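Subject: mismatched residue count in predicted assembly?

I count 704 residues in my input, but I want to confirm that the predicted structure covers every chain. Input:
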Amino acid sequence: MSTTPNGAPGGTPAGDLDPLAAADPQNWHLRESYTFDRNVIAEIRRAANTGIYRIRGWGAKRRLPTLDDLVFLGASMSRYPLEGYREACGTDVVIGEERAERPVHLRIPVTIAGMSFGSLSAQAKEALGRGASAAGTSTTTGDGGMTTEEREHSSVLVYQYLPSRYGMNPDDLRAADAIEVVVGQGAKPGGGGMLLGQKITERVAEMRTLPTGIDQRSACRHPDWTGPDDLEIKIGELREITDWQVPIYVKVGAARPYYDTALSVKAGADAVVVDGMQGGTAATQDVFIEHVGIPTIAAIPEAVRALRELGVHRREVKLIAAGGFRSGADVAKALALGADAASIGTAALIAIGDNDPAYEAEYRELGTSAGYWEDFQAGTDPAGITTQDPELSARLDPVLAGRRLANYLQVLTIETQILARANGKSHVLNLEPEDLAALTVEAAAMAKVPLAGTGWVPGAD
Amino acid sequence: MRGAVRSFDLAEVTRRSFNQALHDAADGASFEVINPRGAHAVACGITADIDVVVRGSVGYYCAGMHQQGRVRVEGNASTGLAENIMSGEVHITGNATMSAGATGCGGLLVVGGNSGARCGISMKGVDIVVGGNVGHMSAFMAQAGNLVVCGDAAADLGDSIYEAQLFVRGDVESLGADCVEKEVRPEHLDTLGRLLAAAGAAAGGADPGDFRRYGSARRLYNFTIDDVDAAEAAARAAGGDHR
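Triage response: the counts match. Full output below for your records.
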């Protein structure tokens, strides 16, 4: 596996890329450098021409160890499968029963991750709320505060409490069904948000108390607490202000998940959200997206280890894993590794219409193609999702887009159930590491499950 | 017309029961707290037009997210005093440690003594009057509102500031990135006069004419992009030498 400094797949011999060279492997005139491939050269030229680092949306694009490197073993002589579509296989998740007067009840183990109004259009936020509500799960605000559109259309809305505190309002805090204290996110652990001037419209600027049109860089540290001891006091304050009504989550980018999870538990979280490096963003530095944090497959087991050691796993404190989930297989594997729910962002945007081939001609005009569009920061999204342009935003029908998301969430859930039943589980949360095997030594070491066909877990005693 | 003062002894009752009483209170109610003994999150989340007097020093987040009414602390306060205050007033007679008035969106915070580091960090419309000095990185990323310092300001005042206005009577150790001194015009003297009067004794009779004003140079508002190719093409089109 190789990557370029800017994270794009690279280092590939020219023969793989260029049919001329492939036909003539001795053609030294088309011999591509493994170190300085065309992506690298293009990025160096772009940097030299502009003097600004590359900013983009989406998540990590380079090849990383993923949950694809795991397989389920399924039932066999010693494990009885359940009948598909007939025998019950529960999917509900409850968060915050221990401390909150109103715990969060989810019908499915998939949630919608935090994405801001500002980075997304109001129509997109509404669509996410509609889809999540129809599927019986939660959606989440983002940097910039809560909009009426998303509150009205989200049956369960998680309110993010971020370092910038843009749009932070105690009335909204009380109107939420849960609070998520954001320490970091997978796309940029240690980095703050970013919203470029073309998306700082009057409404966005007013919500954030910022001048219109500025290139806004959010704070990366909370302004009034530092470290886990302070966080414990902060969580206490949030509980007091909301009269202990709703659960409080802590979200961290996958950096040091064992310690971050343990410290979140110590600070009093009802749920810990661990976001792997495949997690997306609306805009940040490419170097951050591709080079900071660890993959989701490596993060979940470490977070679970902390929860188990503290005796709270699948009990008082729930684990929500995030970062690059695409299918029910991903969800099921995350649950088998010990997560209680999986959170999706990028996949949800795709479900509501991001990178829609119907807009191919416009993607071409923007120098890209449907399936490759990543310039969420630009505000020129042909699909009307990552934009504040009124004409583009109006293209997204929130009702139809919400139905698409609900359908997609249903598929994720049914696929998760299919795999759970195949492993003899009457509830998706009964999936366990014992149901898994790894296809690569790396995955076996990271996920802490045996390499397929062996009993070997690299690094285990 | 204010009703009888309800008194709570935090040595006897829990913070939870006290805060719940404040949250359940109707407009016009008055409360007194004794023996706060450094408790955190005292009198936070007030939504009604009530009066609260805290007799003693408090811990973190006293009067956090305050929305209406008046909280007076007769003592000192730790981190995050009146953080994210929306409206109403919070007065403290003593000193406040870090991040006083952080992210405050409105209302008035008065600190009679000194305020520590990051006073007014990310403030979004609150007015803050400090009778003494403020610590380093005060008004960091301050977006809106007024910070009035009757004493001195430590290093890096107003770093990465947006549209907040800073007024300092004493010395400023150094200004942070993109923060510059600005002219004091009549409207600023009016603002100062109003805020100093509202602060009362905490302002120590300071004269608006003694203050200097600081704010954003607005040089960090947009990325600087040096489009070399475009500049060269334009220069060639014009027949000139772009270098």
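The helical segments of chain B are 15-24, 186-199, 228-237. Marking this ticket as 'not a bug'.
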